[in-house]
Write a structure and sequence with these properties.
By secondary structure, the protein is an alpha/beta fold. Helices cover about 35% and strands about 10% of the residues. The chain contains 3 helices and 3 strands, in the order βαβαβα. A 3-stranded parallel beta sheet has the order 1-2-3.
Length: about 80
């Protein structure tokens, strides 16, 4: 799940990057969500992730995950 404005890529680009590495990117947050990539002005999806105790990462951490190579991405 990607929400808010990311500094270096659009949400669509971030989603495509994750999917290219095998992640399933959901449209909503649930207890089964591994993590949420949150940018500026993330809003209710960020609040929901925090409420559910879902890990929240920023674009820098996303980049580190993506650089780890294929198979390094859990469902997001």
């Amino acid at each position: 799940m990607v929400t808010g404005r990311l500094p270096r890529r659009t949400r669509e680009e971030a989603t495509a990057d994750l999917e290219a590495r095998g992640a399933k990117v959901a449209a909503s947050v649930s207890k089964k969500t591994s993590y949420v990539v949150a940018g500026a002005d993330a809003g209710s999806k960020l609040a929901r992730a925090e409420q559910l105790g879902v890990r929240v990462i920023d674009e820098d951490e996303l980049d580190r995950i993506l650089e780890s190579g294929p198979g390094a991405v859990e469902d997001g």
